[in-house]
Amino acid sequence: MRFNVPNALTWLRIVMIPLFVGVYYFPPTWLALPQQNLIATVLFTVAALTDLLDGYLARKLNQVSAFGAFPCGTGIAGDEDVRRPSDEQPVAGRIRSRAHASPPTPAGVKAS
């Protein structure tokens, strides 16, 4: 994995996860609930903005990597270029097609 700005922004978001969760474990004597909510909101907003910036820079600088595409490959917030095979068919269609598929034939037995 090459080190570049988009990957650094992805790492920043990954590092922010325990901070986001941990802010609610501070005792109320250190941080009141409204302050905890404010800090969590700021962290979440920074994470969202770095996600947008990271995707934009990765495409603009042609530095798209599997590492950067994994956390944000949901098709949300401008990730239209990131496609997985499961994106091609709606969930209901995948379930229906599997339910009506014929069972696999055992090895050495010809299907009729």
Can you walk me through this structure?
The protein is mostly helical and 112 residues long. It has a domain of 77 residues. The protein is 55% helix and 0% strand. The chain has 4 helices and no strands. α1 runs antiparallel to α2. The longest helix is centred in the middle third of the chain and has 28 residues. The protein is flat. The relative contact order is 0.13.
Average pLDDT works out at: 75
Structural class: mainly alpha
Helix content: 55-70%
Low-confidence stretches: 73-83
β-strand amount: under 5%
Q: In one word, what is the shape?
A: flat
β-strand number: 0
Characterize the biggest β-sheet: none
**Computed CA radius of gyration, to the nearest angstrom:** 21 Å
End-to-end gap: 49 Å
| H/I helix tally | 4
What's the short version?
The protein has 112 residues and is mostly helical.
